[in-house]
Amino acid sequence: MAFMVKHVVGGQLKNLTGGLGEEKSEGEKSDAAAKGMTQEEYEEYQQQLVEEKMERDANFAQKKAERATVRTHFREKYRLPKSEMDDTQIQQAGQEVELPQELAKMIAEDNQEEEHKQSVFGKLSNIQNVDLDQLKDKAQATLEDLKQSAEKCSVM
């Protein structure tokens, strides 16, 4: 780890300062020899580092796109203004970005709860001190009374 930090930061510092103060003598070893590797092994090692960095960057971009998708979902749900930054991150991922499975389950449960709350029984159950069975009995009794009074009515 320290090697990577020194390699990344040291190289950039050297470029920034123009290599002042550090001039290699002709007798010094090459980077590969200094690390105890042959030139081929060193090149292979460097190639492996580049591939690992590309893989990490791709995974990071995918995670950023997933987070942007989550934010977009909540913006749509709560009718908030869209963010161009989130759209850009989703497009940069380059592949289909879906909500994480755990979040998708939570959203499905929330949708079911909202559908229940939107129904008549859901709204009635939110009212405190309401006995639904008693309310049903009263409604049926009222309906039966209306039927009986309709039968007695001479106009009909």
UniProtKB/TrEMBL annotation:
Annotated Gene Ontology cellular component terms: SNARE complex; terminal bouton
Question: According to the UniProt record, where is the region Disordered?
Answer: 14-39
Cite the CDD domains for this sequence.
Complexin_NTD_CPLX_III_IV
Q: Which residue ranges have biased composition labelled Basic and acidic residues?
A: 21-32
Q: Which Pfam families match?
A: Synaphin
Give the family from UniProt.
Belongs to the complexin/synaphin family.
Protein name according to UniProt: Complexin 3a
Native species: Scleropages formosus (Asian bonytongue)
